[in-house]
Amino acid sequence: QVQLVESGGGSVQTGGSLKLSCAASGYQFPNCAMAWFRQAPGKERELVSSKNKDGTTIYSESVKGRFTISQDKTKDTLFLEMNSLQTEDTAVYYCAACKNGPRLGDFTHWGQGTQVTVSS
């Protein structure tokens, strides 16, 4: 069974940067669509960025130009590089793998989440 483990979260000030990692354990990194989601307190989970099997990427409007999704297939790791962080980026960030339905959140595998806190 695929287990996704996120790391790299933390606390930064406005304008700072963080790089999140998502590693698959117990199984080879799945060859399927991957994504990063986030959920802020009191808000619904939202898609931040996704990377399809063909390599195409999608970003939410709120992070476009600041965040970059990438994958190191050799090391079986998915990354989310976050620059110019703003207070509204504060949330728990989740890694997801293998889209299995039409809804944005339809993914088979999920990580446990990593907290990102941006303060002014």
Describe the structure.
There is one protein chain. This protein has 120 residues and is mainly beta. 0% of the residues lie in helices and 52% in strands. The strands form 2 sheets. Strands 2, 4, 5, 6, 9, 10 and 11 form a 7-stranded mixed β-sheet that branches. A 4-stranded antiparallel β-sheet has the order 1-3-8-7, with no helix packed on it. The mean pLDDT is 92.
Summarize the structure.
By secondary structure, the protein is mainly beta. It is 0% helix and 52% strand. It starts with a strand and ends with a strand.
Calculate the terminal CA-CA distance, rounded to whole Å: 40 Å
DSSP helical segment count: 0
Approximately how much helix is present in the residues? under 10%
How many beta-strand elements? 11
Characterize the overall form: globular
**Helix/strand/pairing category:** mainly beta
Overall mean pLDDT score?
A: 92
N-to-C order of helices and strands: EEEEEEEEEEE
Query: What Rg do the Cα atoms give?
Result: 13 Å
How much of the polypeptide forms β-strand, as a percent range?
over 45%
Biggest sheet character = 7 strands, mixed
